[in-house]
C-alpha cells in the first residue's frame, strides 16, 4: 500500500476539520437522549422499559444500517450519504417530540433516528478519513475523529439539559434537531468515494465480505466490540436516572455525561497515538479490563457528586478509545476499499450490545427497582472482552492483498 495519499479535491486539514464537526454534532446530539428519560417518562406516563426499548431499537437500527451506510458511502460518495442521514436524523428528532406512546417512540426515537445516526455517523466520517491519509497516520486521525465525537458529547450534554430546563423537553428535541441540519452544508467538504489503493486487491463487495467473515482475528474483534456497545449505551441512557435515584440532581447526571465526553477527548487522542506505536489488540484488551475494574470500584464506593464525576472521568478515558483501535485494525486487515462496510459490520455487533444494554437496564430496573444486576453484568463482559482480544493477530489479511502480475 502506498504511503502517500492520492491528490485531494479539498485540502486535507479542511476535510479533517469538517469531519470532526460532523462527528461532534451527530454524536453529541445522540448523547443527550439519556437526559430525556425522566422528563418524558414522567410527563407521558411511560415506564423506563418503554423508553429504554425505544433507545434500544435506536441502537439496533443504527447498527443494522451502519454496514449499508458505509457501503453506500464507499460506492456513491460520503457527501450525499451524510447529507441524507442528517435530514433523516433531524426529522426523527422533531417527530420524537410529538411521540406520546411507546409505539410512536419506537418508530421515531428508535427506527428513524437510529437509521439517521448510522447514515450521518462518525463511522462514515472515518471511512472518508481512511481513504485520504497514509496507513501510518490512520490510527491518529481516527483518534482525532473520535475525540471530536467526544467533544460533541461534552458540549451537547449540558446544552441539552439547558434546553430542557429553559424550554421543556419537546422544544429541546426540536432545537437539537435543527442543529443536526448543520451537517448538510459541512458534508460537501467530505465528498469523494473509496477506490482500491496500491497494494490492495480489487475484489467485489460480496467477495470482500465473505473473506472478512472468514478471518479469525476480524471475528474476534467483532465479538469484542459487542461489549463496548453494551457499556456505552447502558451508561449513557441510564446513568443520569441512576444518579437521581441515588439522591443526586439531574444536573449532576448531565454533567457526568459531559465529563465522560471531555475525558474521552484525551482517551481517544491517546488511543489513536498509541495505536500507531503499540499492538492495537493489547491496547483494546487493557481498555476492557480497566473498564471492568472502574465499574467495580464505582459500585463499592458511596454515590456522591465526587464519585460520580471521578467515575465519569475514568470511563471517559476508556469510552470511545476502542474506536480508533478497532477501525485501525479493520483497515489493517482489509485495506480501505470496503472500510466503511467492514467497519460498519463490526459496528453492528457494537450496536447489538447497545440494544441489549439499554433495554436490559430498563427491564431490570422495572422488575427489581435497581440497576445493580446490569452493572455486575458489565463487569463480567468487560473481563470476557479483554480475554477475547488477546489472540487477535495484527497483520493484513493475505486474501485482501493485490496479487503480483504474472
From TrEMBL:
SUPFAM superfamilies: MFS general substrate transporter. Residues 12-396 form the Major facilitator superfamily (MFS) profile domain. PROSITE patterns: MFS, PROKAR_LIPOPROTEIN. GO terms for molecular function: transmembrane transporter activity. It comes from the Bacteria. Pfam families: MFS_1 (PF07690). Keywords: Membrane, Transmembrane, Transmembrane helix. Signal peptide: none annotated. The chain crosses the membrane at residues 12-30, 50-69, 81-98, 104-129, 141-160, 172-190, 220-243, 255-275, 282-303, 309-334, 341-361, 373-392. This is MFS transporter. It comes from Arsenicitalea aurantiaca.
Amino acid at each position: 500500500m502506498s504511503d502517500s495519499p492520492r491528490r485531494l479535491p479539498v485540502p486535507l486539514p479542511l476535510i479533517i476539520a469538517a469531519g470532526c464537526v460532523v462527528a461532534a454534532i451527530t454524536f453529541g446530539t445522540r448523547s443527550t437522549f439519556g437526559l430525556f428519560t425522566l422528563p418524558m417518562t414522567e410527563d407521558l406516563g411511560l415506564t423506563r422499559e418503554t423508553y429504554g426499548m425505544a433507545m434500544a431499537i435506536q441502537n439496533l437500527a443504527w447498527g443494522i444500517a451502519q454496514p449499508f451506510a458505509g457501503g453506500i458511502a464507499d460506492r456513491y460518495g460520503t457527501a450525499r450519504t451524510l447529507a441524507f442521514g442528517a435530514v433523516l436524523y433531524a426529522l426523527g428528532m422533531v417527530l420524537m417530540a410529538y411521540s406520546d406512546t411507546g409505539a410512536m417512540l419506537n418508530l421515531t426515537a428508535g427506527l428513524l433516528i437510529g437509521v439517521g445516526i448510522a447514515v450521518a455517523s462518525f463511522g462514515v466520517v472515518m471511512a472518508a478519513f481512511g481513504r485520504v491519509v497514509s496507513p501510518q497516520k490512520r490510527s491518529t486521525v481516527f483518534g482525532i475523529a473520535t475525540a471530536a465525537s467526544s467533544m460533541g458529547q461534552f458540549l451537547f450534554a449540558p446544552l441539552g439539559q439547558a434546553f430542557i430546563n429553559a424550554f421543556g423537553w419537546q422544544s429541546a428535541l426540536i432545537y437539537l434537531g435543527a442543529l443536526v441540519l448543520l451537517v448538510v452544508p459541512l458534508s460537501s467538504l467530505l465528498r469523494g468515494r473509496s477506490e482500491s489503493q496500491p497494494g490492495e486487491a480489487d475484489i467485489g463487495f460480496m467477495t470482500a465480505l465473505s473473506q472478512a467473515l472468514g478471518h479469525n482475528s476480524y471475528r474476534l474483534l467483532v465479538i469484542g466490540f459487542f461489549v463496548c456497545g453494551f457499556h456505552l449505551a447502558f451508561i449513557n441512557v441510564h446513568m443520569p436516572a441512576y444518579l437521581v435515584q441515588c439522591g443526586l440532581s439531574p444536573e449532576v447526571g448531565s454533567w457526568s455525561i459531559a465529563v465522560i465526553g471531555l475525558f474521552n477527548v484525551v482517551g481517544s487522542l491517546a488511543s489513536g497515538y498509541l495505536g500507531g506505536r503499540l499492538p492495537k489488540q493489547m491496547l483494546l484488551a487493557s481498555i476492557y479490563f480497566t473498564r471492568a475494574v472502574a465499574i467495580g470500584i464505582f459500585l463499592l464506593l458511596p454515590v456522591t457528586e465526587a464519585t460520580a464525576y471521578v467515575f465519569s472521568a475514568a470511563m471517559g478515558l476508556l469510552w470511545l478509545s476502542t474506536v480508533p483501535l478497532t477501525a485501525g485494525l479493520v483497515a489493517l486487515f482489509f485495506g480501505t476499499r470496503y472500510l466503511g462496510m467492514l467497519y460498519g459490520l463490526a459496528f453492528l455487533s457494537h450496536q447489538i450490545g447497545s440494544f441489549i444494554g439499554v433495554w436490559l437496564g430498563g427491564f431490570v430496573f422495572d422488575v427489581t427497582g435497581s440497576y445493580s444486576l446490569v452493572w455486575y453484568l458489565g463487569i463480567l463482559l468487560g473481563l470476557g472482552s479483554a480475554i477475547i482480544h488477546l489472540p487477535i493477530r495484527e497483520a493484513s489479511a493475505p486474501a485482501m492483498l493485490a496479487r503480483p502480475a504474472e
